[in-house]
């Protein structure tokens, strides 16, 4: 590489770092994640909820959630497949035989749900902190300038002296505990209750419930704590979710932006390893209408004057 090329490369790298820093200054990483997480939780449980809900993210985000359902959570049983029959009449039942007369329960699927939750509980209690240490995140304080790109300082845990702990790993560990703790604290009681109910339901129900638990233990996370069946596009999907505040104006622009515009905007993040390095054609495939793509409906380049193709 000649001297001129080295200067250009160095200048590009400085410019890329500035773009990335400005991205996280507009909305730090944890706030971006929070803006997506609530909608993802709603989407994954919408089948079981009758509460009205107004979507607050661009539509392509919900298509990404569906991709997650078909990859990360493809083995997670749907409620409608697990319990069928006259569910609304259960409140009037006086004994188990009346319940059995109204509904059918797939006890294998019920057990699988609890198996997945038990695996998640083990990851959080036994594996998450060692993983954060291996990744160099736990126990490695950051300076305030860099930390501001991750979260607002008010989110940080406090030490005994009342000062914030400038440790991103500790923040991530605490966030995981807060998000899942209330649910997982009830897990042991839930397993005990449904195990007893399956026992009363019948010997086949109890056997199916226990087979489902064993299956669920291996169908969400593998032995390394990684998602089973994770999409090769997962990194890209997560970036597009976190970047929704910047992508939404592109979708609403007049004239609407193109996939090429989006790709050019993403290049600094690709070069800085924030997201996968891909070409415009691959991004075009990702943005295609469902079910193959995520329906990120940008304008084809060919609709521009003096341009022949996207």
List keywords for this structure.
single chain, 310 residues, mainly alpha, two-stranded antiparallel ribbon, 14 helices, 2 strands, 2% strand, globular, disordered C terminus
In words, what does this structure look like?
With 310 residues, the chain is mainly alpha-helical. The protein folds into 2 domains: 143 residues, no CATH class; 149 residues, no CATH class. Helix 1 packs across helix 13, helix 9 runs antiparallel to helix 10 and helix 13 packs across helix 14.
Q: Helix and strand layout, with pairings?
A:
Elements: H1 3-26, H2 29-45, H3 59-70, H4 79-82, E1 83-85, H5 96-102, E2 103-105, H6 107-134, H7 144-147, H8 168-184, H9 187-201, H10 203-219, H11 234-242, H12 244-252, H13 259-271, H14 280-287
Antiparallel strand pairs: 1-2
Helix share of residues? 55-70%
Parts with pLDDT < 50 across at least 5 consecutive residues: 303-310
Strand content bin: under 5%
Number of strands: 2
